[in-house]
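User: I would dearly like some help making sense of a protein record. This is the protein in question:
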Amino acid sequence: MQTSPQSNDKIYDLAVIGGGINGVGIAADASGRGLSVFLCEKDDLASHTSSASSKLIHGGLRYLEHKEFRLVREALAEREVLLAKAPHIIRPMRFIMPHRPHLRPAWLIRTGLFFYDHLGKREKLLGSNNVYFKEDSPLNAAITRGFEYSDCAVDDSRLVVLNAMHAREKGADIVTRTRCLSAQREGQYWVVDLENEKGQFQIKAKALVNAAGPWVAQFIKQDLQLKSPYGIRLIQGSHIIVPKLYEGDKAFIMQNDDRRIVFAIPYLDQYTMIGTTDREYQGDPAQVKITQEEIAYLIEVSNAHFKNQLTQADIISTFAGVRPLCDDESDNPSAITRDYTLALSQESEDQAPLLSVFGGKLTTYRKLAESAMQQLKAFFPEMKGSWTATEALPGGENMASAEQLANEIRAQITDASESLAKRWASAYGSRIWNILGEATSVEQLGQHFGQGLYAKEVDYLCRFEWVTTSQDILWRRSKLGLNFAPSEIESLDVYLANKPNTTVAA
């Protein structure tokens, strides 16, 4: 099970609350600059918003309509940076926008795509072009033309885990299933009270980073007993997963009468993922679920575009999350800024600083972390400069492509199927050899739980990726849960329950 440092005399430079993409991104950046870092997450890594995204690294074409030029420029540039950092979990993808003249004129879309092609640095990704649909198109016959452009797909929860691993490898202490009970300033330090299954303990830090995502404002008010500098708007985004709607590896970006857009994205070879929605959410972020209204909305948008008509009976799985956006008092949930706001507070010069993260998006997490370090630089003048733009994430080192790696895997594990080798390569990159070792057949990988999941992989996940439950493995470290039978889950649960703690040092 998860280990945690107990109360001791060590004083960290930084204590980070929250194990979503922003928290782990800041922890990794700070650790690489030579700061001592502690991060705690109350659940598993990427348990909430960071694993409920549309799984894209993208500039945000529709944000141009809301004049979010700075955000789009930064996000567009980040696509290429992240593609180089994590070529195993991030891959280029072409997007097709069917033209529906009554929603947006062709000249407006072409103008937007011109900006999209040229606002950010683009070296690897192809530019945009017009497309014309023939009879074999999966789209309804009335849709005859459209536009095509590039963005990237990503395994969102693995992006979080890899950043946490990177932080740990740079010296950070990362603990999951550890709740922050309270924190208070004592002179130049923050004293942070924490609790996990081993009991309560305490740490001290020179600065506190609040990256609690949907709970960012609540954490300030309830746990710190302070006033939040900004309000937060929780915007629910939901997705449905259905059998593959069409052949090919391109995604579709569908316009709707409400001026919103919905994606249809190839998912795990067998499925199509359709989403996302945008609706105000007032409940507990931990309990968010797709609504019947959202299901009907997504099916209606899909059916307005594709020949292959969906009903609710086609839905295999759903997921929903809330985006914690900084409240800009917009009336339209779709128009609320996706940009991030960093709030630094310090009541007097000799008090320990608090940095709170409001908003943000998956694509710009690395730049957000750099901005956070810039804000904290005055408190840590000895820290090193920025470094994350050029260093690969774990598994991305010395890797040409996932396809080439999959071929190398099959050359060693001669009875591994093509799909299994592809999953290994795209999940672990070059770290797959830490799992496979000298094995030459799947038989040598230990107990088979089903769907190509073997004991060696489970052991690795427990040791290096903070796994404690089958849910961690089946829904966040992978998406094998879509195909796992109840009996297979039970077998995995038994194995995990009887497994001794082998987690590497926090």
Remarks:
- The mean pLDDT is 93.
- The domain at 50-155+233-327 is CATH 3.30.9.10 (D-Amino Acid Oxidase; Chain A, domain 2).
